[in-house]
């Protein structure tokens, strides 16, 4: 029997449910073919070791698609997620996995189009003004142009998989406002700007999902309740590790397990 949500988490989900569009929440997971699309947050970067056969795509057995497929035994997973994927790359290399037989699609993408990795690198290595200006630019892009680009992608997913339930998962806020982030730390202003850009990505992704009439899960709530961002006391997101740069500010194994389990409870139970 699955664990019940705490009252605090349940309260967070009451708010998160407002961000869901499309099919009603808490419907049963459809049985049949499940296609997982997206970038490093979908492939499971941050929770090594990775499947050797996935190469540079860095697909982890602990990723949220793998955990969902294991949880819902009626699903047959086709995992085509890939670290570093952009919207164009999802369209070019991943959408061919969809068909009229597909019954469930999950997708996380857009962060690489927004060059969020560049923003993180700039905020870790450059001065405050540089970090602020990068975040301002990316936040504007996320709330405007990204919405059009994502909505077009979602519409194409619907066309290729007309019988599928489509769930778009956004990105979490990255950092707690207190605590050490590791080898390269962040001051309060930089943490505020980075979280503001995460909010912009979430808002843009939500707007695109609503426009295309697909479901959206706001993952900020999954990590925020209990202060599970990077740099906090109980992080579900990796902090700064120079020996594992790719994993910086991606969910760790606990994050993919606990945070996304809350998502599946809300969507499928």
UniProtKB/TrEMBL annotation:
Keyword Nucleus belongs to the record: no
Highest taxon listed in the record's lineage: Bacteria
Domain SGNH hydrolase-type esterase: 36-257
Cell wall biogenesis/degradation as UniProt keyword: no
CDD domains to which the protein is assigned, alphabetical: SEST_like (cd01823)
Keywords: Signal
Signal peptide: 1-27
Source organism: Actinoplanes couchii
This protein's name: Lipase 1
């Amino acid at each position: 029997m699955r664990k019940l949500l705490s009252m605090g988490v349940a309260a967070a989900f009451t708010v998160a449910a407002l961000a869901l569009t499309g099919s009603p929440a808490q419907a049963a997971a459809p049985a049949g073919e499940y296609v997982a699309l997206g970038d490093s947050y979908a492939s499971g970067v941050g929770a090594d070791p990775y499947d050797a056969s996935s190469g540079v795509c860095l697909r982890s057995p602990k990723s949220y698609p793998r955990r969902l497929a294991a949880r819902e035994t009626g699903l047959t997973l086709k995992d085509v997620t890939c670290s570093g994927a952009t919207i164009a790359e999802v369209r070019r290399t991943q959408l061919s996995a969809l068909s009229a037989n597909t019954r469930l699609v999950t997708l996380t993408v857009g962060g690489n189009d927004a060059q969020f990795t560049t923003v993180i690198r700039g905020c870790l290595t450059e001065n405050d003004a540089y970090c602020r200006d990068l975040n301002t630019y990316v936040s504007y892009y996320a709330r405007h142009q990204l919405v059009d680009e994502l909505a077009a992608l979602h519409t194409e997913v619907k066309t290729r998989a007309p019988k599928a339930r489509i769930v778009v998962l956004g990105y979490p806020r990255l950092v707690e406002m207190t605590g050490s982030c590791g080898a390269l730390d962040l001051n309060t202003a930089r943490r505020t700007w980075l979280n503001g850009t995460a909010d912009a990505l979430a808002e843009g992704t939500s707007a695109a999902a609503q426009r295309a009439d697909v479901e959206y899960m706001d993952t900020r709530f999954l990590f925020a309740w209990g202060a599970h961002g990077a740099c906090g006391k109980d992080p579900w997101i990796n902090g700064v590790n120079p020996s594992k740069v790719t994993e910086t500010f991606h969910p760790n194994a606990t994050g993919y397990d606990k945070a996304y389990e809350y998502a599946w409870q809300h969507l499928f139970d």
